[in-house]
Amino acid sequence: MEAIQTAAEAKLAEIDKNTSLSDDEKAAAKAEVAKAAIEAVEAIQKATTQEAVNAAQAKGEAAIKAVNPVGKEKALAAIKVIKDAKLAEIDKNTTLSVEEKAAAKTAVEKAYNEAVEAIQKAATQEAVNDAEAKGEAAIKAVNPFGKKDVNEAKAAVEAAAAEKIASIKANPNLSAEEKAKAIVEVERLKQEALTAIDKARTKAELEKVLRTFLYQLDQKSLVYDRPTFNIEAYIQASITGVVKVEVGKAITQADIIAKLNLPESVTVISVDLPDINTLGRTFAKVTLRLPDGTEVTVFVPVEVVESFKEDKQQNNTQEDSKPKVVPSNNSEQPTVTQTEDVKENPSNTSQESKASNQKVLPNTGTGNEISIFGSVAMTVLASLGLVATSKKKEEE
Question: Record keywords: GTP-binding included (predicted)?
Answer without folding.
Answer: no
